[in-house]
């Protein structure tokens, strides 16, 4: 199994995973979406809210704010040594005190931990007028996307099979498929059609080119064939900013390893019982 | 108020609402604005295109 990165920065990673099965590719996708923990505001204590929004709506908006998370410093509430009492290892408290008029933004949230702050400081929460006031205490916990989407650290996270485009000798270079392709993957070169250099990954496997080719009256079989490589997958992982994209991939893979080890352990336990 | 995140993919889109609103009022083509704001997917684009701000109308009824 091999991973080759096409692009890697804090917000987006594009890579090809080769030598893997579809099942593994999907397991990786699912663990990155649902099993990589991140911080999000869960408990909100509202001391004063005279704004035009209801408490619940305000709490929901505050919960959706992505928060920068250093995973090495936090543990989940259930696993913490404080046994649910609340300590700096399992929770971060934010306070927000704003008086109108003006726009309340995520930058107004004051964190007790200078490293753990909202990713964006200009997310609008509510607009306040004269004599309106907000006094809020919010507590962020570590949890995963399977519990609620606010704990999901990925935005767009998915894969597709690697496209394989073959042009047979029958091609006369009429260019009908080139005009039809919505992603501009193909070009006419001399008497035949070929893939534009570096554009193969843009192909969405829509097969409109095959239909266009048959439409020219070339016969029963299309001169261009679109197939996919069942062992090679193109991934896109986009982070919401709470955790760098590379760490999301690492944590996703670590989760798969942890669960696989658990299966081995329980299988061994079962087989020991039988003896 | 504009939703904090895109309903479908979860990208934070509320941060660009003010700029979108101003540039649209200035007569710029929404397609150009969305492209320059980096909103690639149509789920995020519809969040801004179809949004109607009503918080100013709520104010008298607090």
UniProtKB/TrEMBL annotation, chain A:
GO terms for biological process: DNA-templated transcription. It catalyses: RNA(n) + a ribonucleoside 5'-triphosphate = RNA(n+1) + diphosphate. It comes from the Archaea. The gene is rpo3. The keyword Transferase applies. One of its GO terms (molecular function) is DNA-directed RNA polymerase activity. It comes from Methanocalculus taiwanensis. Its cofactor is [3Fe-4S] cluster. One of its GO terms (cellular component) is cytoplasm. InterPro entries: 4Fe4S_Fe-S-bd, 4Fe4S_Fe_S_CS, DNA-dir_RNA_pol_30-40kDasu_CS, DNA-dir_RNA_pol_insert, DNA-dir_RNA_pol_RpoA/D/Rpb3, RBP11-like, RNAP_Rpo3/Rpb3/RPAC1, RNApol_insert_sf. The lineage of its organism: Archaea, Methanobacteriati, Methanobacteriota, Stenosarchaea group, Methanomicrobia. Residues 161-191 form the 4Fe-4S ferredoxin-type domain. This is DNA-directed RNA polymerase subunit Rpo3. Binds 1 [3Fe-4S] cluster. Part of the RNA polymerase complex. Belongs to the archaeal Rpo3/eukaryotic RPB3 RNA polymerase subunit family. Its EC number is 2.7.7.6. [3Fe-4S] cluster binds at residues 203, 206, 209. Keywords: 3Fe-4S, Cytoplasm, DNA-directed RNA polymerase, Iron, Iron-sulfur, Metal-binding, Nucleotidyltransferase, Transcription, Transferase.
From TrEMBL, chain B:
Belongs to the archaeal Rpo10/eukaryotic RPB10 RNA polymerase subunit family. Its cofactor is Zn(2+). This is DNA-directed RNA polymerase subunit Rpo10. It comes from Methanocalculus taiwanensis. Part of the RNA polymerase complex. DNA-dependent RNA polymerase (RNAP) catalyzes the transcription of DNA into RNA using the four ribonucleoside triphosphates as substrates. GO terms for biological process: DNA-templated transcription. One of its GO terms (molecular function) is DNA-directed RNA polymerase activity. Binds 1 zinc ion. The lineage of its organism: Archaea, Methanobacteriati, Methanobacteriota, Stenosarchaea group, Methanomicrobia. It is an enzyme of class 2 (transferase). It is found in: Cytoplasm.
């Amino acid at each position: 199994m091999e991973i080759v990165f096409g692009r890697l920065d804090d917000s987006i990673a594009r890579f090809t995973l080769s030598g893997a099965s579809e099942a593994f590719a999907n397991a990786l996708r699912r663990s990155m979406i649902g099993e990589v923990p991140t911080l999000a505001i869960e408990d909100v204590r509202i001391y004063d809210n005279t704004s035009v929004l209801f408490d619940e709506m305000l709490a929901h908006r505050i919960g959706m704010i992505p928060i920068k998370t250093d995973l090495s410093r936090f543990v989940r509430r259930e696993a913490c040594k404080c046994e649910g009492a609340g300590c700096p290892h399992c929770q971060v408290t934010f306070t927000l005190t704003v008086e109108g008029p003006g726009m309340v933004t995520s930058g107004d949230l004051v964190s007790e931990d200078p490293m753990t702050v909202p990713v964006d400081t200009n997310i609008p929460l509510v607009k306040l007028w004269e004599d309106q006031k907000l006094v809020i205490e919010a507590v962020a916990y570590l949890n995963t996307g399977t519990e609620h989407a606010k704990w999901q650290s990925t935005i767009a996270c998915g894969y597709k099979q690697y496209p394989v485009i073959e042009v047979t000798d029958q091609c006369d270079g009429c260019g009908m498929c080139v005009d039809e392709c919505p992603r501009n993957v193909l070009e006419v070169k001399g008497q035949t059609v070929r893939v534009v250099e570096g554009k193969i990954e843009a192909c969405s496997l829509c097969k409109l080119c095959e239909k266009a080719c048959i439409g020219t009256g070339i016969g029963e079989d299309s001169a261009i064939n679109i197939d996919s490589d069942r062992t090679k997958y193109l991934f896109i992982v986009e982070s919401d900013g709470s955790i760098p994209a590379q760490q999301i991939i690492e944590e996703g893979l670590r989760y798969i390893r942890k669960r696989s080890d658990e299966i081995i352990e329980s299988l061994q336990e079962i087989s020991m019982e039988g003896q | 108020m504009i939703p904090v995140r895109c309903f479908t993919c979860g990208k934070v889109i509320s941060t660009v609402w003010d700029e979108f609103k101003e540039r649209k009022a200035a007569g710029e083509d929404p397609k150009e604005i969305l492209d320059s704001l980096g909103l690639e997917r149509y789920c995020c684009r519809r969040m801004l295109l179809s949004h109607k701000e009503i918080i100013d109308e709520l104010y008298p009824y607090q």
